[in-house]
Structure prediction request, 451 residues.
Amino acid sequence: MTSTTEPTEPLSVEQLSATTLLRFATAGSVDDGKSTLVGRLLHDSKSVLTDQLEAVERASASRGQDTPDLALLTDGLRAEREQGITIDVAYRYFATARRRFILADTPGHVQYTRNMVTGASTADLAVVLVDARNGVIEQTRRHAAVAALLRVPHVVLAVNKMDLVEYKESVFAAIAEEFTAYASELGVPEITAIPISALAGDNVVDASANMDWYGGPTVLEHLETVPVSHDLGHCHARLPVQYVIRPQTAEHPDYRGYAGQIAAGTFRVGESVTVLPSGRTTKVAGIDLLGKPVDVAWTPQSVTLLLEDDIDVSRGDLIVPSKDAPPTTQDVEATVCHVADQPLTVGHRVLLKHGTRTVKAIVKDIPSRLTLDDLSLHPHPGQLVANDIGRVKIRAAEPLPLDSYADSRRTGAFILIDPADGTTLTAGMVGESFAAPQPVKDEGDDDGWDF
Prediction:
């Protein structure tokens, strides 16, 4: 077995800043080996501190295990260790010489769909695990559907526990073919299948000597080289205003800047821009980055824009290129995942947070609830409960500049908040869902049977 990643010294600040960042999430059914894969990835890529490994070795020995249980590197909650399952999203940060990573290890149980949505909402890539003995099951299809809904651009199918099926190529090929066909129908743009054994380390970081029939990359090789093709620098330029800077000092008596993190795209000095939702237009007079003037700035830089005209701009406004402004509307139609234990009902009064803007809103209708098992639509459910995914229509008290989620995962997303206690209720994605394979059936079409 040859190593594809040589042991290296800790990366310097300069090296880290020169590498790209990949956010990825893992998903899979219970006992498919997600946490073991993550632990193996961290261990074999030399990303585990000595004291962490020693703690895992002690915990494993106390449970009568001869070898370290690498799943304990991510399953940090006591209940997780006791039951051998993942309950909450565990985030891990690590880096190699080629790339930096933010990893979200998400639970596999059906009742934790909302946790997967949370972990995958910002992911560039999703790793979906399948037990080679069980193949593609209902939960596998559910995770593929969630990845498609969230427009995750890259999906890796990791067929795990190949050691338990004698490393047979035919087993892997059948699973890869079935999953790829299903995920492609959902609109997942790129699918890469990799046969692995997380427990033994085959094809995780090191290439496997047991599967010479496989000529593709290991999991780490793929993570290091997959292109982040949805480069936000080439998307519609968007700057949600977070703060208005007016020092009013003797040195800067007339300085007025609008600070925020560029959500997408690129801004240039001299460019014509529009402030939404007011619709007022002006030009970029200057851009300050880290206290110094620059001519160009791009996502995800935090900058201060100076405008030629003294117009009213405040926190929550969105600055966009005049030639590429999104429409503003008070009527929002979206696909949502309900994350709170309290149900979301028609008539529910909420706060809608989009970017840096928060407005009052009311849920006008819930046209359908999506059943991820078979992608069927249940019409007019009346409410969404925890982990439900469905379509909603919302009326906002003020106009909002909304992109379609299909065009921009940053400015096409929003959350609904309980105005009473600030609890996050729902995560929303503006526009159409990934597919509607079955039309919503009207109640009048029912034949009278009710089970």
Remarks:
- The first strand starts at residue 20 and ends at 28.
- The chain has eight helices and 25 strands.
